[in-house]
UniProtKB/TrEMBL annotation:
It comes from Vibrio hippocampi. This is DNA transformation protein TfoX1. InterPro entries: TfoX-like, TfoX-like_gammaprotbact, TfoX_C, TfoX_N. Residues 117-196 form the TfoX C-terminal domain. SUPFAM superfamilies: YgaC/TfoX-N like (SSF159894). The gene is tfoX1_2. It holds the Pfam family TfoX_N. Residues 13-104 form the TfoX N-terminal domain. It comes from the Bacteria.
Length: 204
């Protein structure tokens, strides 16, 4: 089943970077790092990516994959979020693959939504404290922070404090906007940032 399913994905879908890993006592199938199918004992299960998929699977009489959580003393049976293929398409690997691609698309969209920062504190280098400092300076969202840029954002914070917070905060903000850790900002970029900010905002 696993080999035929992988061949069908390659032939009938646009899914890329397919990988297989051991999970839940079976073999999980992933695309772009997002798992969407599970094969166990020659049986294929598809992920119920959201409530709508789960309802459809249940209505179609699909069976949830059951696995055991093991502890030192006993096994704990648990139902997964993966369901057997609907019987009305079980005869057609191409139709199964089409449904699997729809499942992956929804799962991938949900993952992107979860991975996309919604608050300043969720950006690299940022914390609650930094978020509060930016808000006091009138910068309340990631969009506003990106629009202002690191230099103007740092200046705004300085203007709202009695003491300048230090050049590292400038690097933290620059890294947050670029999505990187501040420590890997190249020295020439750091020099440029300090020059743009001006010495009056860097003095302690």
């Amino acid at each position: 089943m696993l080999e035929s399913f992988l061949e069908s994905i390659d032939t009938h879908s646009q899914l890329k970077n397919i990988t297989v890993r051991s999970v839940f006592g079976g073999k999980g199938v992933l695309s772009e790092g997002v798992m969407f199918a599970l094969v166990k004992d020659d049986q294929l299960y598809l992920r119920a990516s959201n409530a709508a998929f789960k309802a459809d699977f249940i209505q179609s009489g699909c069976v949830a994959y059951e696995f055991n959580w093991r502890s030192h003393s006993r096994n704990y049976p648990s139902l997964s979020n993966y369901y057997s293929v609907p019987s009305d398409i079980s005869h057609s690997m191409q139709q199964i693959t089409t449904l699997a691609e729809e499942v992956w698309s929804t799962s991938h969209k949900i993952k992107l939504e979860k991975d996309t920062p919604t608050r300043i504190k969720d950006l690299p280098n940022m914390q609650y404290k930094t978020e509060r400092m930016l808000r006091k300076a009138g910068i309340n969202s990631i969009e506003e922070l990106r629009e202002l840029g690191p230099v103007n954002a740092y200046r705004a914070i300085c203007l709202n404090q009695d003491k300048n917070p230090g050049v590292n905060l400038l690097y933290h903000i620059a890294g947050a906007i670029d999505g990187i850790h501040w420590s890997i900002i190249p020295e020439n970029i750091r020099t440029s940032l300090k020059r743009e900010v001006g010495t009056e905002f860097l003095a302690q």
